[in-house]
């Protein structure tokens, strides 16, 4: 069980971003492409797990001071360092082995993700602002990898929206670190020295506003309407706004944003907005004959 925790299988949910290009391209029921992206998903997830292992190895001492992270396998001592490093090597071998089965270009994108995150673990994460930009860039690389694996062309709008959404969640997570520092006096991250509560609140408000405006511009852009043969995509903005407002409520009112993945798994309101957003997009894109319903 501790080895499963070390691999952070729950965080594999982040890698479902690889399927986003297929969804927006209308290829969600293309079995051949789905299987290809599914293989890419496992390759990406296993490689990402190797990053989590090396990150935990580097942060053992800092994690032991954290009220939650102290329970991690390495920080708690339930998994030895030598065993963790062996598992790290196995993840790299298996992950990139599967990646090469997908295609070389996918392995190249995965390699960029791996190197970027290694640099993050070995120093870049202590640079404030750059740390959250790297986290957001990781999600963009996930989408890029999914597009490469599924042989789907991706619009600039899609990449921008993914980056903004990931940046929003990264800022919320860093805000939580600032709150822990204020409440306990413990410095959870070296990069936190470049943040304070007022700055994080401004950043959250700024990014959330940009997301809503950018999403509206995306849904109403002539090229988007031409690609999907409909002008009705802007209806889905309702669910985007609802999800963002709920996340802000969790952040400002409940002060509970330590893990976006945890929120995704446990918060029913956000789960519902995501489900309704997906269903509305599905109806508009995949069931054009039913679009008269929205007239």
General description of the model:
The model is unreliable at 290-295 (pLDDT under 50). Helix content is 72%, strand content 0%. The relative contact order is 0.10. It is built from 14 helices and no strands. It has 295 residues and is mainly α. It starts with a helix and ends in a 9-residue tail after the last helix. It has 2 domains: 1-154, Tetracycline Repressor, domain 2 (Orthogonal Bundle); 155-295. It is globular. It has helices at residues 2-7, 20-25, 31-58, 60-64, 73-76, 81-102, 104-121, 130-149, 156-184, 197-220, 222-228, 237-252, 260-266, 268-286.
Overall 3D geometry? Answer: globular
CATH topology of the largest domain: Tetracycline Repressor, domain 2
Beta percentage is: under 5%
For the secondary structure, the number of strands is: 0
């Amino acid at each position: 069980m501790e080895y499963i925790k070390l691999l952070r299988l729950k965080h594999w949910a982040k890698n479902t971003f690889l399927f986003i290009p297929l969804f927006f391209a209308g290829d969600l029921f293309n079995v051949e492409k789905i299987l290809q992206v599914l293989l890419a998903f496992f390759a990406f997830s296993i490689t990402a797990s190797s990053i989590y292992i090396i990150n935990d190895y580097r942060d053992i001492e800092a994690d032991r001071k954290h009220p939650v992270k102290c329970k991690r396998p390495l920080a708690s001592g339930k998994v030895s360092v030598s065993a963790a490093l062996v598992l790290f090597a196995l993840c790299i071998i298996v992950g990139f082995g599967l990646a090469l089965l997908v295609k070389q270009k996918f392995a190249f994108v995965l390699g960029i993700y791996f190197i970027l995150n290694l640099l993050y673990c070995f120093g870049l994460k202590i640079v404030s602002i750059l740390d959250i930009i790297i986290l957001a860039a990781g999600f963009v690389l996930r989408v890029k990898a999914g597009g490469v694996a599924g042989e789907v062309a991706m619009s600039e709008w899609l990449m921008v929206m993914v980056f903004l959404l990931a940046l929003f969640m990264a800022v919320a997570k860093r805000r939580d670190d600032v709150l822990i520092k204020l409440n306990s006096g413990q410095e959870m991250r070296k990069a936190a020295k470049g943040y304070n509560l007022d700055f994080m609140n401004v950043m959250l408000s700024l990014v959330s506003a940009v997301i809503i405006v950018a999403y509206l511009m995306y849904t109403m852009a002539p090229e988007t309407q031409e690609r999907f043969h409909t002008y009705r995509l802007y209806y889905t903005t309702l669910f985007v706004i609802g999800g963002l407002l709920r996340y802000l409520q969790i952040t400002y009112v409940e002060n509970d944003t330590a893990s976006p993945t945890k929120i995704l798994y446990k918060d029913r309101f956000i789960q519902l907005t995501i489900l309704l957003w997906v269903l509305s997009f599905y109806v508009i894109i995949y069931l054009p004959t039913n679009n008269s319903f929205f007239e």
